[in-house]
Design goal:
The chain is an alpha/beta fold. It has 13 helices and nine strands.
Length: 332
């Protein structure tokens, strides 16, 4: 009998570590909490932005092992861009697309990222964000509640018109429709045109009836709105580089596990790479399409445009100092 009891006791000692571990060897001790991210933006479903958002949603779920999913809200369903940025900063919404220059509403010196002729191309803008100044700006954004995960190219604004633009001189006196935003108004003003703000929905008819002589938008917008039907010329002025940051709420980000943080960051980088490639290829294709539709494409020298815009930079330096300007020049 004593021998039997000894064997039982020995078996109990062997089994103690198993029960101390909860008896669940071969599984993770604690499953990651599932997170659903809401990603909002202004562009409609079917846009390049939406396609890139789908890439993000697919990648983040795969990379996180299913613990992070993303629901896409296109077409301003969750508010305008300013409202969504404020929601993200407060942690009431998880993610949003945003141009770097748009953060100028809260960090005024950031508005320079939306200025005309500040950047040669999208890569120049990215290099600027890698400078000491750019990294400092990202730190300021994080302090206000926004973490930039990645940045994608969102097209370059060009100018269509009912007369040929071969140089800055051809802009003089042109009634140019622009959105009611400082950067766009200044592009028209310093180029010698007459800035004419009007609601976007009215632009096609205004062009058709010659109420305005031209407008400026990325090629993708010119195509989507069929402006090539009512404008004969397209000048590749390339005056404003549009970027599209993948922004996550800092409050939300800090609640993620390390694995989830990595998944979210890597997914955003993959989506941004797709975003950039899609817009870049589309621009090449659209120029060919416009020519097939009968548009005449011109490429005016940008140097005189940039020179004419200098008073805007001087005014910026007077208000905010020259740190951003030096960073942009160093990255050129």
């Amino acid at each position: 009998m004593k021998k039997v009891l000894s064997i039982v006791a020995l078996l109990c000692l062997i089994m103690v570590p198993v029960f101390a571990n909860g008896g669940n060897e071969g599984t993770t001790a604690t499953a990651e909490k599932k997170v659903e991210l809401k990603l909002g933006f202004q562009a409609n479903a079917g846009s390049n932005e939406y396609l890139a958002a789908e890439v993000f949603a697919k990648e983040v779920e795969a990379l996180s092992g299913g613990s992070v999913t993303c629901k896409i809200y296109a077409g301003g369903q969750l508010g305008d861009d300013r409202s969504m940025l404020e929601q993200v900063a407060a942690g009431a919404m998880e993610m949003v697309y945003a141009e770097t220059g748009r953060f100028g509403l809260w960090i005024p010196e950031a508005e320079i990222f939306g200025y005309p002729f500040m950047f040669d191309n999208f890569d120049h803008l990215l290099r600027t964000m890698q400078t000491e100044y750019g990294k400092k700006l990202e730190g300021q954004l994080e302090a206000k509640g926004w973490r930039i995960l990645a940045n994608g190219y969102n097209g370059t604004r060009q100018t269509t018109s009912n007369k040929k633009i071969e140089s800055i001189a051809d802009m003089k006196g042109m009634k140019l429709r622009v959105p009611n935003a400082a950067a766009n108004l200044n592009f028209a003003k310093y180029s010698g045109a007459a800035p004419t703000p009007m609601p976007f929905a009215e632009v096609y008819l205004a062009l058709k009836t010659n109420a305005v002589d031209g407008q400026e938008n990325p090629l993708s917008t010119i195509n989507a709105q069929k402006f090539y039907e009512v404008q004969k010329y397209c000048a590749l002025t390339g005056h404003i580089i549009n970027d599209n940051n993948y922004v996550i709420s800092e409050k939300v980000y800090q609640k993620l596990s390390d694995n989830q943080k990595t998944a979210v960051s890597e997914a955003a980088k993959k989506a941004a790479a797709f975003h950039t490639a899609k817009f870049t290829q589309d621009e090449t294709d659209l120029i060919k399409l416009f020519q097939e539709q009968g548009m005449i494409i011109t490429s005016p020298d940008k140097a005189p445009f940039r020179e004419a815009s200098k008073p805007m930079i001087d005014e910026y330096i007077a208000k905010y100092g020259d740190a951003a300007v030096k960073a942009i020049e160093s990255a050129r």
